[in-house]
Amino acid sequence: MNPSRALAALLLVPAALAVSACGEPKDESSSTPTTTASAQACQKDQLDLVTGGKLTIATDKPAYPPYFEDDDPSNGKGFESAVGYAIADELGFAKNEVTWKTESFNSSYAPGPKRFDFDLNQISITPERQKAVDFSDEYFTAPQAVVVPKGSKLKDATFAALRQAQLGVQIGTTSLKAVSASVKPTKDPKVFDTSNDVVTALKQGQVDAVVVDLPTAFYLTGAQVEGASILGQFEAPGGDRWGAVLKKGSSLTACVSDAIESLRQNGELEKITDRWLGGGADVPTLQ
Predict the structure, then answer these.
(1) I need a labelling partner for 54 at 20 to 30 A (CA). Which of 66, 96, 120, 230 fits?
(2) Where are the beta strands (DSSP E) in 204-263?
(3) How confident is the model at residue 59 (pLDDT cuts 50, 70, 90)?
C-alpha cells in the first residue's frame, strides 16, 4: 500500500494544477466557512477539545498514499498527515500533543457527536454535508480522473466515448456526482461501498472504467492495478474542494480555517502540496 520513492515521484501532480484544476463538485458548495476567529479564541488554552491538552485528528483506515504513508497518520508523512501537523502547529500544538483516531469516511460527516477535533480524509465540501457538520476552508482542490484497465477499448479521452461505458465509482463520493453531472453515462454507474471494492471491480473487469480524484488515480494506476492507466481528467461542476470536518457548530472551525489561511499566506500549504502532490503529470483533459 505504500508508494516507493519511485511511485512517490509518479504521484506528483503540479501544484498549480492542484490549486486550479478542480475536480469535485464546486456547484455544491460555494459556502466554505470563512469566519475569522479572534486571536484570543484560538489560543491553545481556550480551545474546546475532545481531550484536554491534546489535539485529536481523525482519518480513515487504511490510510493511503499519497495522503498518508505506511498506514500511519502519526508519522507526518503524506499530504494530509503533513497538513494535519501544520494546522496543529499553527494552533500551538507540538507533534507529541497531537493524537490520531480512526474514523470511517462516511461516519466522519454523519450527524452527531464527534470523537475528534477535526477529520482529514479527502472529504469534499458539499451543501448536504454542511447540514450535518462544519467544514474548514478548503486545503486542496482536486480534479476528477477516469482510470481504465490494461487492454481497455477506451482510447479517446472524450465524454462521448465514456457515455457508452460501464463506469464504477464509490458510494457517497463527489466522484459519483461528477459522473452524473459531467459524464452523463447512458448506463447507471456501478456503485461500490469502499475504495477497495472499486479497485477490485477494475481488476476483475466488472467495469470498463472507474472515476476517482486525480491523486487517487495516480496511486491506483501506479500501485494497485497493474497495467491500468489514466484516460483523462476533468473538472466537475463545483470542483472537489477538500476541507477539515468538525462537529456542527464547533468553536474550533474558524480557528482551523484561520490556520489554513495562514499556511496558504506563508507558502507552507503550497510547499506541502508540492512535496506530496506536486510534479509533472501529463494527463489529457476530457473533452
Answers:
(1) 66
(2) 209-213, 229-234, 240-247
(3) very high
Grid coordinates representing 269? 500549504
Q: Give the C-alpha separation, 159 to 183, whole Å.
A: 6
Tell me, what amino acid is at 155?
K
- Phi, psi (rounded to 5 degrees) for 243: -130, 160
At 131, the amino acid letter reads K
pLDDT over 60 (residue 89): yes
Side chain identity at 278, as an amino acid letter?
Answer: G
84: amino acid identity, one letter: G
Whole-angstrom Cα distance, residue 3 to residue 64? 9
Is residue 106 within a helix (H) or strand (E), and if so which, with residue range?
helix 105-108
Q: Find the helix or strand (DSSP H, E) in which 143 lies.
A: none
Contacts 24+ apart (CB under 8 A), 70-77: 70/2, 71/1, 71/2, 73/100, 74/98, 74/100
